[in-house]
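4.2 Preliminary Data

To establish feasibility before requesting continued support, the project team ran the inverse folding procedure on a target of 228 residues. The structure was first converted into the token representation described in Section 3, and no sequence information of any kind was made available to the design step. The complete token record follows.
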């Protein structure tokens, strides 16, 4: 019980380190989700609206990447940005920027896979009508994204939830450096190992609140879309 009391005291006192960790986490998750959706939604819509040779194989590849282990993605990015790697001269290793890159590699396939499946299953009448009036592929993709924007928001929120809960990749490429690259998940792991349960609990409570808000908003959007 003391750990819970101390955890709430840390939250209500706006502990400086706690707030900094939350800030880094939200910044990393925001940028990685934004970039992943900018890349993934149009690609997913394109795959969902077109029929082409090799589509089945591409979808299997995307589904495989959707389950990519975070530590594998982290190792891959680490090898790229270490001093001996091809991008080592950029000096991005152990920064928030490289953590965002690792997250984008993990999240983009999820966005592509979910959006392509959604558009393929729900936008068939729109696609057929658009092709019938002679619209080009680019305009068909824009139309499908526009018509399904309400439900697609839930995919964006799912991507954000995936980003904020990630621990393996960001730990490898970010180094879990205090006041620099420490995020909520890596801090919880570290503080638990150190026996500082109150700090870990405070972060865990924040993560649960954020996860609840994201899921609640996603459920509300899906419900509104069905009602419409």
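Position-by-position output of the design step:
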């Amino acid at each position: 019980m003391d750990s819970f009391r101390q955890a709430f005291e840390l939250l209500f006192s706006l502990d400086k380190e706690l707030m900094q960790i939350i800030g880094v986490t939200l910044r990393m998750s925001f940028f990685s989700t934004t970039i992943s959706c900018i890349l993934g939604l149009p690609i997913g819509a394109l795959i969902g609206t077109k029929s082409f040779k090799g589509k089945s194989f591409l979808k299997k590849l995307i589904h495989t990447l959707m389950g990519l282990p975070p530590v594998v993605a982290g190792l891959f990015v680490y090898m790229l940005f270490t001093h001996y790697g091809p991008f080592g001269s950029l000096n991005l290793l152990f920064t928030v920027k490289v953590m965002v890159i690792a997250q984008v590699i993990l999240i983009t396939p999820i966005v592509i896979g979910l959006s392509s499946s959604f558009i393929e299953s729900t936008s068939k009448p729109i696609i057929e009508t658009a092709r019938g009036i002679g619209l080009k592929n680019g305009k068909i993709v824009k139309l499908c994204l526009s018509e399904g924007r309400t439900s697609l928001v839930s995919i964006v929120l799912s991507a954000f939830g995936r980003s904020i809960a990630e621990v393996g990749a960001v730990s490898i490429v970010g180094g879990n450096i205090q006041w620099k690259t420490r995020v909520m998940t890596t801090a919880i792991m570290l503080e638990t190992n150190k026996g500082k349960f109150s700090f870990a609990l405070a972060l865990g409570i924040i993560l649960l609140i954020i996860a609840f808000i994201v899921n609640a908003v996603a459920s509300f959007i899906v419900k509104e879309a069905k009602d419409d």
